[in-house]
Automatic annotation (TrEMBL):
The keyword ATP-binding does not apply. This is Metallophosphoesterase. Transmembrane segments: none annotated. It comes from Catonella massiliensis. Pfam families: Metallophos. Gene3D superfamilies: 3.60.21.10. Residues 26-212 form the Calcineurin-like phosphoesterase domain. InterPro entries: Calcineurin-like_PHP (IPR004843), Metallo-depent_PP-like (IPR029052), Metallophosphoesterase_sf (IPR051158). Keywords: Hydrolase, Metal-binding. The keyword Hydrolase applies.
């Protein structure tokens, strides 16, 4: 149930003097935490919003599906998991003929039943999706200009409930290596480790996971995170630390607690700009 307005596009412009000039004005849609939700038959409303935004590519920050293992179901997973995999694939199949689609993993992809994960991966491969499981994709433009896009798979141990975890810089470097000299976008599903991402020197981190904190209060932001801590620091919006920026999507869907109060589902449109000014709206 959504109290307040429905799905909308949240827009940001992000400035950096490190951005190659040929990427000035580069636009991408960032989708996170859809969890198999449909907006219109076959997600036509969501697709129309994307087409209208005229992005240069699509970035997916994970949790497109609902994961989990079920001993009660003979396949080993709930039918809901399979449905969300199908919904995600159907949506992505509409996008790949028009756009480069780059997909990082959320905690729900990481906890999909192995058979379902293999099925999801092979369908993404057929669709020529760049699946970044601790990998890098370099997006090239003319004059050999490029920006680097990384997908960090945090591992199940970094999504604890009822307690907070620390993520070391070493563990990020072990998975991704040291950051290179290009302008770098890091897709890392949980925003809770922003300090570490900033020390890795990500220019722009894209996260989700907290679903905006289920309910949003003016001046406060999100109320509760999936780890059951109240008033999470990075529940949704634009953040800066150590010269590094982060955009946290409030997410496009829900699961388990199907409630969003004054916390509309969102997809995100980001425009990269060459220069010093930094702001979100
Ligand atoms: Fe999620």
């Amino acid at each position: 149930m959504v109290l307040g307005k429905g799905l909308y596009i949240k827009k940001y412009q992000v400035y950096s003097p490190k951005l190659p000039l040929s990427f000035d004005g580069f636009r991408f849609i960032f989708i996170s935490d859809l969890h198999g939700k449909k907006y219109g038959k076959n997600n036509t409303k969501l697709l129309e919003m994307i087409y209208k935004a005229k992005p240069d590519c699509i970035l997916i920050g994970g949790d497109m599906v609902v994961g989990g293992i079920s001993r009660r179901c003979k396949e080993g997973y709930r039918p809901l998991s399979k449905e969300t995999v199908n919904t995600s694939i159907d949506l992505i199949a509409e996008l790949t003929p028009k756009y480069t689609v780059i997909h990082a993993l959320g905690n729900h992809e990481e906890k999909l039943h192995p058979a379902l994960w293999d099925e999801y991966k092979s369908k993404l491969k057929e669709l020529n999706v760049k699946l970044l499981d601790n990998e890098k994709f370099s997006f090239h433009r003319e004059n050999d200009d490029c920006i680097d896009i990384y997908g960090l798979s945090l591992g199940k141990e970094n999504y604890p409930k009822f307690r907070r975890n620390k993520l070391s810089l070493d563990s990020v470097e072990e998975k991704l290596g040291a950051k290179g000299g290009n302008y770098t976008i890091l897709m890392a599903h949980s925003p809770l480790y922003f300090e570490t991402y900033s020390r890795w020197k990500a220019d722009l981190t894209l996260s989700g996971h907290l679903h905006g904190g289920i309910m949003r209060l003016p001046l406060v932001g999100g109320v509760i995170g999936p780890d059951f801590f109240i008033f999470p620091k990075y529940s949704g919006g634009f953040y800066t630390e150590n010269g590094s920026n982060m955009i946290v999507s409030c997410g496009a869907g829900t699961h388990t607690i199907n409630l969003r109060v004054f916390n509309p589902p969102e997809i995100t449109l980001v425009e990269l700009k060459f220069g010093e000014k930094l702001h979100g709206n």
